[in-house]
Amino acid sequence: NLDLSNIQGDILSGLPKKTQYYLFFQITDGTKFKKDLTKLIPLVKTVAQVLKDRETIKDHKEKGHKGLVPMVGVNIAFSHSGFTQLNENDPFITGQKVDAVTHLGDTKNSSLGPDWEPAFLQDIHGLIIISGEGHASIDKKKQEIEGIFNVDTPQASIKEVTTIRGDVRPCTESGHEHFGFLDGISNPTIIGFDDANANPGPKPIKPGFILTGRDGDADKPKRETAPWTVDGSFLAFRYLFQKVPEFNDFLKKNPISKDGLSPEEGSELLGARLVGRWKSGAPIDITPFKDDPALAADSKRNNDFHFTGESNDQTKCPFAAHIRKTLPRDDLEVTRHTDISNRRIIRRGIQFGPEVTKEEKDSAKTMHGRGLLFACYSSSIANGFRFIQESWADAQSFPPGTTTTPGLDPLIGQGEREMTGTDPSNLTKSITLPEFIVPRGGEYFFSPSLKGLKETLAV
Ligand code: N7H
């Protein structure tokens, strides 16, 4: 019995998107902002509305109509310093700038902070996500929003710090991130919201691991003392640049040699073993040495694996493969009898930047910035996103109890970048990994309920 019209749409259902603006802002006049916010609230799309949108899209396709349904969705979230501006006791830990070097492993810049884009070294008070089917739609909505807050006029209540546009990749790469792997296959199944039979896999979780103040949220009693914080979710945003030509060059130069595999296939296999899935999305725990696009496309099977029976074996999937590091499934739940519901995150996010050019491909050097606007939701940053990055991805000995040290997550791991298990015929061999993903910014936000927005944050 979740109140779907009280929850912002991106959290449980994901705003429908082909393109999105992530508009980061500072509040320049708190009193006026609270008034202006009342005019933004009618634009904020809830989970209930997104579900309707999805029905419309489905109907449109079923009727054989061509083209995309015009559709825009807005969500808003506030950072720790944003709540300070609004004089509101916020439900926060700290801002990400503090965490980046101490917890997330980001490189330190000489002047104390992380080595980030200048925009993210400024104070960011909030984030408005504008999501739509095309650039014209989101441009128009952005202008409308700038009008509401009188941006760039003497009456302005906010100042834009930076706006980044994300775009789903074109044609057959749609849904694939820039390295080429299908993304968005595995997200937690929420009890009382998702159909557990739709995408079988890791055990369903209580809504409170994602939504604040609901069953499962460790801080439920605290939220109940400030009811406006119920039905929200924490949003961890990371501005992650991907070195795609360098990644491809690494795969090309280090093919896995195995009977019957061509060098190209050996390179494909190495990529699959770094991620834990083939580019198609098929999990290597089920199909370790050969891609299986039919399996990848079958939502009844593509997430139904557990790394079972191989808690001390990485023949099928390296311990450090990105999806095993970030969701170790039975490595913890069965082998270590540890419930990991509190580590689950719902991943949203979108790609940014252009496709790789011929010049970049030929030189194996990135010349244009591209990557992932990573965004994930959960009821705790410390238990969710931060824990996964710090205690799993960046920890050489995670998962525990293995005979061979797993090493780092080859994609997002920060530190001594080595891992074992890439070569199925020599599983203890360690390889050194160049840096493929560079964090250049980020912030933590809280995405409040509609009630919280209407009754507490706006006036
Ligand atoms: Fe990852 N990638 O393309 O390789 N991720 N990730 N991620 N990630 C996943 O199963 C990727 C990042 C998680 O439930 C897939 O849906 C890239 C961060 C989690 O089995 C692919 C970047 C964090 C999962 C990628 C990036 C995570 C997951 C497989 C950065 C958290 C689900 C698709 C540029 C700290 C695991 C799928 C599960 C899956 C990629 C970042 C976490 C292909 C390119 C920062 C929890």
Write a structural description:
The longest helix is centred in the first third of the chain and has 16 residues, at 47-62. It is globular, with a radius of gyration of 22 Å. The chain is an alpha+beta fold. Strands 5, 6, 7, 8 and 11 form a five-stranded antiparallel β-sheet that branches. Strands 2-3-1-4 form a four-stranded antiparallel β-sheet. The chain has a two-stranded antiparallel sheet with strand order 9-10. It has helices spanning 9-12, 30-40, 47-62, 80-85, 96-102, 118-121, 135-148, 220-225, 244-253, 263-275, 293-297, 322-326, 330-333, 358-363, 385-393, 450-457, and strands at residues 19-27, 72-78, 126-132, 158-167, 233-242, 346-347, 350-352, 371-378, 418-420, 430-432, 437-447. It folds into two domains: 9-239 and 442-457, no CATH class; 243-344 and 386-439, no CATH class. It binds delta-meso nitroheme (N7H). Delta-meso nitroheme is lined by residues 177, 179, 181, 183-186, 238, 240, 242, 275, 277, 322-323, 326-327, 345, 347, 371-372, 374, 385, 388-389, 393, 411-412, 437.
